[in-house]
Write a structure and sequence with these properties.
heterodimer; A: mainly alpha; MetI-like fold; globular; B: mainly alpha; 2 domains; two-stranded antiparallel ribbon; about 75% helix; about 0% strand; flat
């Protein structure tokens, strides 16, 4: 009986480990496939011979990228955008979140502002009025169209406000006794205490603005102003249209775009590298972010 | 003396209040500019909006665009597609994430657990622009999946171009992208269950399945309810980025959703007023959903979504 049971549980554990491993592989292999394609020869890629390992290993694609002006232009636009977004997000979010921690007694207009924030989370003008606004502001084709519309992430304000509320009140009161003003309290006490939350907010801002392709698609009329993801997206379109239109592989073989598959894959890999570089930090703050996500107002 | 102190406190308080207003100001500026002005801009849904004339000189046409919208045969199809895809993603996504969390919790080899976690969280952080290429490489006509099907002697499937398969592809790949990241919450819920409960159940001779069913899942229930309510709020956004990067006219029949429709007709087709009308309906229904699921969450779990 006992032996039967331990036998049973050993089988169970093995099955569990296999399923977990398979799920892990399902996430890993498709990504390795892109990497392998970027490192393989065009011929091998066109013949669909590339799996998870490169075939006819070559760095030609990466060499080509080095001299691709538009790629690096878009890359740079995205870097600048990420920096501007991050700086602006923090500059706007931090003071607002702190002011929102104040009660009605200390800050009489607090609830008015809070309701304005909450209503904007519930209801929005949507894609088209926002586009018309950005256009009327003369921001089309400007990097600011990629930065300003997302300047105030309301959810982050509330996230940070809740974090501030969790910091012991006595710290603030002691500083107040010493004659510190609210701005000093915010910068010298609250901000250092809220570092984990600020890190989470910053990381999500970075990932969000790096990954966004849609703003670039609608606000940039010239392809030379595309941020990196919009640029990559514009590459995908040509090939996908071909593949989706159901053309047979033999008909496609002559089309030059298809032989660019390894070049495009290499572009994707390079475009993802910045994210992979911050991924270890991202993972560290992942849990913090999610736990804070269960917000209590 | 006491009055003096009181006076001083009042002065300090007034000065503080002024600084609070100053702190709110930058945020308020952007809130009004990019949230509230577009709401006013929704007036264009009731106009024949011409950008050159602007919001104030365009002609008002009442509910013309709304009546037109509800007469379109497309609109019912688009709402159905949106709901099917969003609900499918929500339900399958939760089931897989919960199952994965339960299985991962059983893994005792630390390095394996850490490695698997690192890998499965990764797709969440990648853009759909990037993942669209990954999906195309897998599910394209010459993709890996079709190669496997062919080698098994089965017929190839045009996953990206067949409107009967397309919604499943969208749901499946979204679940694939997000299950790891979503499982974090459930994993945290599992580890917070009192181990004593499991021990007691084992003593009573409960099998592994029975313990999962009677101890683990009930312990996770509050978080499952909370996540259900949170997910319900996004029922109208079936995932623009994903669908936009994967769909084509071949699959509009089942793959076109509210957001892609508004984008195509409203922005690309420059029917601004009509697009804004669809957007307005979407926003109103979205608001109602958000408010009701918030009320539901409060009732069920004492938590609030916002």
């Amino acid at each position: 009986m006992v032996e039967n049971r331990s036998m049973h549980s050993r089988v169970r554990i093995t099955v569990i480990y296999i399923i977990v491993l398979l799920m892990g592989l399902s996430c890993l292999l498709p990504l390795l496939n892109i990497l392998a394609i970027s490192l393989s020869s065009s011929a091998a890629v066109s013949a669909n011979r590339v799996g998870v390992l490169p075939v006819d290993f070559t760095l030609t694609a990466y060499n080509k990228i080095l001299s691709d002006g538009q790629f690096w232009r878009s890359f740079l636009i995205s870097v600048v955008r990420v920096v501007l977004c991050l700086a602006l997000n923090l500059a706007v979010t931090v003071p607002m979140a702190y002011a929102m921690t104040k009660g009605k007694k200390e800050f009489r207009a607090r609830n008015i502002y809070m309701n304005l924030l909450i209503f904007a989370m519930l209801f929005n003008g949507g894609m088209i009025p926002t586009y018309i606004l950005v256009r009327n502001l003369g921001l089309l084709n400007s990097i600011w169209s990629l930065v300003l519309p997302g300047a105030l992430p309301i959810f982050n304000v509330i996230l940070l406000m809740n974090f501030f509320l969790g910091i012991p009140r006595s710290l603030e009161e002691a500083a107040l006794m010493d004659g510190a003003n609210p701005i000093q309290i915010l910068l010298r006490i609250m901000v250092p205490c809220a570092k984990p939350c600020l890190a989470t907010i910053s990381l999500f801002s970075i990932v969000g603005s790096w990954n966004d392709f849609f703003s670039g698609l609608i606000y940039m009329q010239k392809a030379e102003n595309y941020p990196i993801m919009t640029y990559i997206q514009s590459l995908n379109v040509d090939i996908q249209e071909l593949l989706k239109s159901g053309a047979t592989s033999s008909a496609l073989e002559n089309i030059t775009e298809l032989s660019n598959r390894n070049l495009n894959a290499a572009k994707i890999v390079v475009a993802v590298i910045p994210l992979l570089m911050i991924y270890p930090i991202l993972q560290k703050y992942l849990i913090t972010g999610i736990v804070m996500g269960s917000v209590k107002e | 003396m006491d009055r003096d102190k009181n006076e001083k406190m009042k002065k300090v308080r007034r000065r503080s209040e002024l600084s609070y207003h100053l702190m709110v100001f930058p945020g308020l500026f952007f809130l009004i500019l990019f949230s509230y002005i577009p709401m006013v801009g929704l007036l264009m849904a009731f106009q024949d909006f011409v950008p050159a004339k602007g919001l104030f000189r365009s002609e008002f046409v009442g509910l013309k665009h709304f009546t037109y919208m509800f007469q379109l045969p497309d609109i019912g199809k688009i709402i159905r597609n949106t709901l099917v895809i969003a609900l499918g993603k929500m339900m399958l996504g939760m089931v897989i994430a919960i199952a994965f969390a339960i299985l991962l919790n059983e893994v005792r080899i630390k390095i394996m657990k850490k490695t698997v976690q690192t890998i499965v969280y990764l797709p969440h952080f990648l853009s759909w622009v990037v993942l669209a290429s990954v999906v195309t490489n897998m599910f394209g006509l010459d993709g890996s999946v079709n190669q496997v099907l062919a080698s098994l002697g089965l017929e190839k499937v045009n996953f990206l171009g067949n409107s009967r398969v397309f919604p499943s592809l969208i749901i499946g790949t979204d679940v694939w992208k997000e299950f790891g990241y979503s499982s974090v919450v459930y994993l945290a819920a599992i580890t917070s269950i009192d181990p004593g409960l499991h021990e007691a159940a084992t003593m009573d001779g409960a099998s592994w399945w029975k313990r999962i069913w009677h101890v683990t899942l009930p312990g996770m229930l509050p978080i499952i309810l909370l996540m259900t309510a949170t997910n319900l709020t996004s029922i109208l956004s079936a995932g623009f980025d994903q669908i936009y990067n994967l769909y084509s006219p071949l699959v509009y029949e089942t793959g076109d959703v509210l957001d892609t429709y508004v984008y195509r007709i409203g922005l690309v087709g420059r029917q601004y007023s009509f697009g804004a009308a669809v957007g307005l309906c979407r926003s109103i229904v979205g608001m109602v959903l958000l408010l009701s699921s918030n009320a539901l969450t409060k009732k069920l779990t004492d938590q609030k979504i916002f």
